[in-house]
Write a structure and sequence with these properties.
The longest helix is centred in the middle third of the chain and has 25 residues. Strands 1-4-5-6-7-8-9 form a 7-stranded parallel beta sheet. It has a two-stranded antiparallel sheet with strand order 2-3. The chain is built from 18 helices and 9 strands. The radius of gyration is 19 Å and the shape is globular. The chain has one domain: TIM Barrel (Alpha-Beta Barrel). The relative contact order is 0.14. Helix content is about 50%, strand content about 10%. It is an alpha/beta fold and about 350 residues long.
Length: about 350
C-alpha cells in the first residue's frame, strides 16, 4: 500500500483511502468541473478545452470552480486523458459535437514503432504547473488534490479507432492480429503514464486516479487478463513502489472486478451497475472502494437521488474505506443545486450512520 504522510492524514479523503475512521464519508465527483457549471461554460465561451489545458492559470481556475460552490473533499485537476497521446506524436482534436477526434489513427505496426515516449515534465508541463497553482490555493484546507491519467487500453482505443467507439472492432482487430505490436503499444503507453503520474505527484497531487473507461465495455474477462491487466499492473506497481496513493477506476468491469483489483491500486473505483457491497466483498474489504451512484439519477427527482444515495451508504455500512462518488462523470444537464444537495446529504447522512454504529 502507498505511504501517506502524517500531514496528509488530516485530509478526510486520504484517511478514508487509508481505511482510517472519518467523521463523514468523503465526496468528490468525476467531471465535477465541467459543463453543468455556468461559470465553466463562461470560460468555455472564450477558450477551447485545449486552450484551457494549455494555460495553467485557466486550468487551475476551472479546477477550483466547484470548490467555491460545494463542500467537496477533493479537487481533481482540470485536464483530459488524451494530451499524452499528442505528446507521443498522435494529434488530437476536440470537436464541439463529436468529442475527441484523431485525424491520423494508428492502424499499422510501423506507426506504433514511430511513437515517442517523451518526458512528461517537458511535454505535459502546463498540467503540472496547474497542479502547483491549485496546491498553493488549497494550502490549509482539508481538501485533497487528485491527479489523473488514462489507462493504456482506453488511450489505445482512442488512437486506433480515431475517436469514441461502440464496438472497438478496429482496436480488437489490431490486438488479435498483431500481438507483438499491441504489446509494444501498450508498453509505451504504460511507460509514459507512469512518468506522467509520478510527475503529477511530485508537483503536488495528493493522489492519482487511473481512468480505464473502455476496456470493460470492449473486452471479456480472459481478454482483459491477457491484453490489459499486465499494463495496468505495471502502472500500479510503479506507483506503489514510489509511495504514490492511487485509485484504480474502470467502467463495465463488474463481471470480473477481481481481475481489475488484481492490477493494484489503493482504492478500487466502481461504476453503478452492481451494488457496492457486493463489489466490495469481491475485491476484499481490506481495500478501500469508491462509488457508485448512477450519474443519470441526478437528472431525476430528489426522492430517487436520496433513496439511492442512502442505499449506497447503508451498503457501505459506515466501514472505513468508502469514498462516495458517481459511477462516472457528472452529466452536462445536471443542476448545480442538485449536486450541492447531494454533497450535503452524503456528509450528513454518513455522519449519522457512523454515529449509529459507534459503541455507546
Amino acid at each position: 500500500m502507498s505511504i501517506i504522510s502524517a500531514t496528509d492524514r488530516a485530509l478526510p479523503l486520504l484517511r478514508a483511502l487509508d481505511r482510517r475512521p472519518v467523521e463523514h464519508t468523503p465526496v468528490w465527483l468525476m467531471r465535477q468541473a465541467g459543463r453543468y457549471l455556468p461559470e465553466y461554460r463562461a470560460v468555455r465561451g472564450h477558450h477551447s478545452m485545449l486552450e484551457i489545458i494549455a494555460d495553467p492559470a485557466l486550468a487551475a481556475e476551472v479546477t477550483l470552480q466547484p470548490l467555491a460552490r460545494f463542500p467537496l473533499d477533493a479537487a481533481i485537476i482540470f485536464s483530459d486523458i488524451l494530451p499524452p497521446l499528442a505528446a507521443m506524436g498522435v494529434p488530437v482534436e476536440f470537436t464541439t459535437t463529436d468529442g475527441p477526434h484523431i485525424p491520423d489513427p494508428i492502424r499499422r505496426a510501423r506507426q506504433i514503432d514511430l511513437l515517442a515516449v517523451p518526458p512528461a515534465a517537458e511535454t505535459l508541463a502546463p498540467t503540472l504547473d496547474a497542479i502547483r497553482l491549485v496546491k498553493r490555493e488549497l494550502a490549509g484546507r482539508s481538501i485533497a488534490l487528485i491527479g489523473f491519467a488514462g489507462a493504456p487500453f482506453t488511450l489505445a482505443s482512442y488512437a486506433i479507432e480515431g475517436g469514441t467507439s461502440r464496438a472497438f472492432t478496429t482496436t480488437k482487430r489490431l490486438m488479435y492480429s498483431e500481438p507483438a505490436a499491441w504489446k509494444r503499444l501498450m508498453t509505451k503507453l504504460a511507460t509514459l503514464q507512469i512518468d506522467y503520474l509520478k510527475e503529477q505527484a511530485a508537483a503536488g497531487a495528493d493522489l492519482v486516479q487511473l481512468f480505464d473507461s473502455w476496456s470493460g465495455l470492449a473486452l471479456g474477462r480472459d481478454d482483459y487478463r491477457d491484453y490489459v491487466q499486465p499494463y495496468n499492473r505495471m502502472i500500479f506497481d510503479a506507483l506503489a513502489s514510489s509511495g504514490i496513493t492511487a485509485i484504480n477506476f474502470s467502467t463495465g468491469t463488474g463481471g470480473y472486478i477481481e481481475e481489475v483489483a488484481a492490477c493494484g491500486g489503493d482504492c478500487i473505483g466502481v461504476d453503478w451497475r452492481l451494488p457496492i457491497d457486493e463489489l466490495w466483498q469481491r475485491i476484499g474489504t481490506e481495500r478501500s472502494i469508491q462509488g457508485n451512484l448512477d450519474p443519470a439519477l441526478l437528472l431525476g427527482p430528489w426522492r430517487e437521488i436520496e433513496h439511492h444515495a442512502d442505499t449506497i451508504l447503508r451498503q457501505a455500512a459506515g466501514r472505513p474505506g468508502h469514498i462516495f462518488n458517481l459511477g462516472h462523470g457528472v452529466l452536462p444537464e445536471t443542476s448545480p443545486d442538485v449536486v450541492g444537495r447531494l454533497v450535503d446529504y452524503v456528509h450528513e447522512r454518513s455522519a449519522a450512520i457512523s454515529a449509529e454504529r459507534a459503541p455507546s
